[in-house]
């Protein structure tokens, strides 16, 4: 797929806000893209209120999407409901598209269940295998430093919150694993470089100079 759009919508994960995406937005702007940050209430609002607002934003014109964690599930859910949206490519950062064991662990405990709010169901079940027109790329981490390992059984390689296996949804166009933690994905120059590669070419290229 050939795409020339430079507009990129960035959306954050659970317990985050617009500020968490500022560093990545700056790197994309430096690379010549036009980033816009989409914020939503992850606990009191959740996906049910975020998805219609995101759809309206995406209806304004062609745009790629970069989404961290829960944000990836919100984006794919929106695109599965509205495959006609003009979104050529999506890069997910550590999104548990196959469902989150950490969220399942938290939901099973009285003292932590409420902290997931209205995002609990989507986090636990994940998304259906991808078959839409948009090309989806995943950048996962495998530095196991995060709160998730204390509240759920995360098996295999993981970023401290999400396991690599939980990011491997069927239908992805490309998948890469980096030595970074879940929150570290947001501040990595290498993540930004790979995202730019995917937006431009539909694939993650190999290791290279991280100058973004």
From TrEMBL:
UniProt keyword Isomerase, yes or no: no
Protein name as it appears in the record: Alpha/beta hydrolase
Keyword Hydrolase: yes
Coiled coil: none
Bilayer-crossing regions: none
PANTHER family on file: SLL1969 PROTEIN
InterPro entries in the record: AB_hydrolase_fold
Single GO molecular function: hydrolase activity
Species this protein is from: Lysobacter niastensis
